[in-house]
Amino acid sequence: MRVVQLSPHSLLFPHAESALREPNGLLAVGGDLSPARLMSAYRCGIFPWFNPGEMILWWSPDPRAVLFPADLHISRSMRRFLRHCPFSFTLNHAFKQVVDACAEARSDGTWIGPQIARAYHRLHQEGIAHSIEVWLGGELVGGMYGVAQGRLFCGESMFSRSTNASKAAMVVFCHHFTGHGGQLLDCQVLNDHTASLGATEIPRRAFLAALREMQQQTLAEGCWQKQVLSLPPTLFTPAASGPRP
């Protein structure tokens, strides 16, 4: 196995299964971040991840971190918080601001440099990348963004400027996404935050098979229209709240 140098004259990627084991998932270098190349990558289960100012790196790790919306973990304390939730939620109202906030939110540095931000903004303008916003008193305090692939959503990054804001964004998004036929969220690489929300790891081969199937399936009309979102009503029923401690 070797890392492939992408041709500037072709949008083709090597097969994801040919990625390196160490570093896990590194597949190719070079190319650009044009909408056409990015979509070619996502269709193959590949995503860009590199430090600003460095060569573009393309990845497809094994195993792959995913979240089945039905497995979304909402703790008892989070349920209590959401029953008195101070936030409001929107879809595709402030994509650029969400991406910028995701870049600023990382204390250990960020891979979301100006090149990445511009690239995903172009995808958003083409109706392929989407954002979920969390607001508190008119201020953007949390959110996430990613790329739609049929009934699969590739989550790219999330941020929180207020306690529980990013978790609330995930709860609202999963409710909205599954309500329109969505089936799976790609989390790329497992971390403590996504694991706490219920994300798990599956073999890359299984992820690629699911991707191929879900890409061919459409969501209900209006899923990605600019709109106001709401918390799932089931959070406020006695059955959802669970037994008292």
TrEMBL record:
Primary site of residence: cytoplasm
GO MF annotation: an example: leucyl-tRNA--protein transferase activity
Source superkingdom: Bacteria
Location(s) in or outside the cell: Cytoplasm
EC number annotated for this UniProt entry: 2.3.2.6
Single GO biological process annotation from the record: protein catabolic process
Enzymatic class: transferase
Entries under InterPro entries matching the protein: Acyl_CoA_acyltransferase, Leu/Phe-tRNA_Trfase, Leu/Phe-tRNA_Trfase_C, Leu/Phe-tRNA_Trfase_N
Catalytic activity, as annotated: L-phenylalanyl-tRNA(Phe) + an N-terminal L-alpha-aminoacyl-[protein] = an N-terminal L-phenylalanyl-L-alpha-aminoacyl-[protein] + tRNA(Phe); N-terminal L-arginyl-[protein] + L-leucyl-tRNA(Leu) = N-terminal L-leucyl-L-arginyl-[protein] + tRNA(Leu) + H(+); N-terminal L-lysyl-[protein] + L-leucyl-tRNA(Leu) = N-terminal L-leucyl-L-lysyl-[protein] + tRNA(Leu) + H(+)
One cellular component (GO) term of this entry: cytoplasm
Keywords (A to Z) from UniProt: Acyltransferase, Cytoplasm, Transferase
Family: Belongs to the L/F-transferase family.
Family matches, as PANTHER family: LEUCYL/PHENYLALANYL-TRNA--PROTEIN TRANSFERASE, LEUCYL_PHENYLALANYL-TRNA--PROTEIN TRANSFERASE
Role description: Functions in the N-end rule pathway of protein degradation where it conjugates Leu, Phe and, less efficiently, Met from aminoacyl-tRNAs to the N-termini of proteins containing an N-terminal arginine or lysine.
Protein name: Leucyl/phenylalanyl-tRNA--protein transferase
Phylogenetic placement of the source organism: Bacteria, Pseudomonadati, Pseudomonadota, Gammaproteobacteria, Enterobacterales
